[in-house]
Write a structure and sequence with these properties.
The chain has one domain: Nucleoside Triphosphate Pyrophosphohydrolase, CATH 3.90.79.10. The protein contains 3 helices and 10 strands, in the order H-E-E-E-E-H-E-E-E-E-E-E-H. Helix content is 20%, strand content 35%. Strands 1, 2, 3, 4, 5, 6 and 7 form a 7-stranded mixed beta sheet that branches. A 3-stranded antiparallel beta sheet has the order 8-9-10. It starts with a helix and ends in an 18-residue tail after the last helix. By secondary structure, it is an alpha+beta fold.
C-alpha cells in the first residue's frame, strides 16, 4: 500500500490538532518521531543504538533521551538529543506537535514529539551513540506479515510487546509500540485484522 506524503501529513496534523493525549507536564525523557518525504511518500528516520551503550544497546529507536535540567521543555529535549545523535540541526526540523507519552521500565513518562525533517544533508550519526541510521517508508509498517506480538513479564505483570521485522532488524518494544499505535490512531492499521494489546511499549 503506497501512501501519499501530503495526505499522510494532513491526516497526522488533524490527529495532533484535534485529539487529547495522555501527557505529563514533567516527562523524564523525550523522543522525536521524524518523518520526511521521499518519492512523494512518508518515511520514518530511526537509529540503531551503539552496542557499546549500557542501556538499550543495539536496539532500534527514535532519536531522543533523558531531559536535561537546562532544557526549556520536552520539545527542546527531543531536538537537542536528535542533534547530539544525528547532527541534525533544529533549523532542519519543523515541529508538528506532540503525541501520547509512553513508558519504559526506566521512565514512567517519555514524551513524543512529531517533526518533519526538511533537510537530510546534515545527518551524521554520532559513533559513540549510533551504529547506523535507518530510513523506512511508513507503508512498510502496514504489512501485517512483518508485525508480531509477544508476551513478557515485568514486575509480575504480563505485557504484550510489539515487533516489526524490517531491513534485517527487529524493531521492538517502545519504538514498535509507538509506531503501531500512532498508525492505528491515524486509521492506517485495520484493528479488525490485528490483535490489539491492552498496553504496549515495554522496552
Amino acid at each position: 500500500m503506497k501512501l501519499d506524503y501530503f495526505e499522510f501529513k494532513n491526516k497526522l496534523m488533524q490527529l495532533l490538532n484535534t485529539r487529547e493525549f495522555h501527557q505529563s507536564n514533567t516527562p523524564e525523557a523525550s523522543v522525536l518521531i521524524p518523518i520526511f518525504q521521499r518519492n512523494n511518500e512518508p518515511w520514518f528516520i530511526l537509529t540503531k543504538r551503539s552496542t557499546q551503550l549500557q542501556k538499550h544497546s543495539g536496539q532500534v529507536s527514535f532519536p531522543g533521551g533523558k531531559v536535561d535540567k537546562t532544557d526549556e521543555d520536552k520539545v527542546e529535549t527531543a531536538l537537542r538529543e536528535t542533534y547530539e545523535e544525528l547532527n541534525l540541526p533544529e533549523e532542519s526540523i519543523r515541529v508538528l506537535g506532540s503525541w501520547h507519552d509512553f513508558w519504559t521500565p526506566y521512565f514512567q513518562h517519555v514524551a513524543t514529539i512529531v517533526g518533519e525533517v526538511l533537510d537530510l544533508s546534515n545527518i551524521r550519526p554520532e559513533p559513540s551513540e549510533i551504529d547506523r541510521v535507518i530510513f523506512l517508508p511508513v507503508s512498510a509498517f502496514l504489512n501485517p506479515e512483518i508485525h508480531k506480538i509477544e508476551h513478557r513479564t515485568h514486575n509480575g505483570t504480563v505485557y504484550e510487546v510489539h515487533h516489526f521485522y524490517l531491513d534485517n532488524e527487529d524493531i521492538w518494544g517502545a519504538t514498535a509500540g509507538v509506531i503501531f499505535f500512532l498508525l492505528k490512531e491515524m486509521g492506517l492499521i485495520d484493528q479488525n485484522n490485528r490483535h490489539l494489546p491492552e498496553r504496549g511499549g515495554l522496552t
